[in-house]
# Entry
Amino acid sequence: MTGLVISGITKKFGNFTAVNNIDLHFNKGEMICFLGPSGCGKTTLLRMIAGLEEPTNGSISFDDSDLTRVPVHERSIGMVFQSFALFPHLSVGENISYALKIRGYSRSDCEDRARVLLDKVHLPGIEDRRISQLSGGQRQRVAIARALALDPKIFLLDEPMSALDANLREAMQIELRQLQQELGITTVVVTHDQTEAMTMADQIVVMGNARVLQTGAPTDIYKNPANKEVASFLGTSNLLPAKVTSDTTVETAGHSFGVASIGGFSKGDEVLLMSRPEDVTVSVDEQETADNWVSGTVTFIRDIGAIIEILVDCGGHEVISVITPKDCPDVSVGKTVSVQIPKSACHVLAN
Ligand code: ATP
# Structure
């Protein structure tokens, strides 16, 4: 199989299993994000792709060639570490061309390559600077340029944005994605930042507890999370305890909700009714005759300019609605409201 293929990969440290029997397949040129909470095994999986960690079981191949036992320096991999790991005693240009130099490339080839790569990462003309003279964002771009010096087939980045402040992080996410698309290089990024994964990835791998919880395109996972862990980790979700009442309905807080599908559940099953805040509307009018509504009490209103979040207590369960200021009803904390969720936005998940 072409592309990056991970088959039955397991990594144990003594008795502890950090990565548990993972199978994944990605096409060449895709941007993949490993997303999940701290300790779920993302970095360990990335390090096995890099060859920095040996799998206990399983194999990794790229473009039909088995990499599992290939040493790091023969894998055609470029890696950016969380700390950037730049050499402080070398100039920017020497950092970027370091791998070329130790492979015997001439000084002028090294300098040319450093110049080309600095242009690519939008830092032309800084090859003679010291690393200590660079900002955090510039260091990151230099680390990216250095990782690309040998024209690798696979580009790996471990939490590349974590050392940057919030504004710079957003700008770099877009820049990194554009660079990756321009180069068409198969790229794996480890992150625990869902926005980062949603911004950059063709495929997101949501991990939890050493396993893959779900793999797919960002919007597919966002719209159809496989379980409550994924729903909670990728975006904000409303999860109301409910009971399946028919092939097309569930009941929660004494109200019947039509749902998109009850999936593999049966009448009587205890489930969760999942919805996304942007699909929930809050209204001050009585909805007696309408379907898919429940009443509640407003507990908090958070106005953050472009959007307003309204938190509503519905029978002891919190429901969040996100709306734009122009659509915001006349609500205040303590007011009784009705919360509506259209059938197409109601998903049934295991409790
Ligand atoms: P984070 O986001 O915090 O970096 P992660 O999802 O990348 O987390 P890993 O670094 O892959 O998680 O670690 C997975 C588990 O394996 C953790 O419980 C970690 O303590 C353990 N682990 C990682 N490396 C080793 C090691 N060399 N020896 C023993 N345990 C390890």
The mean pLDDT is 92. The chain has nine helices and 20 strands. The longest helix spans residues 166-183. The chain has two domains: 4-228, 236-350.
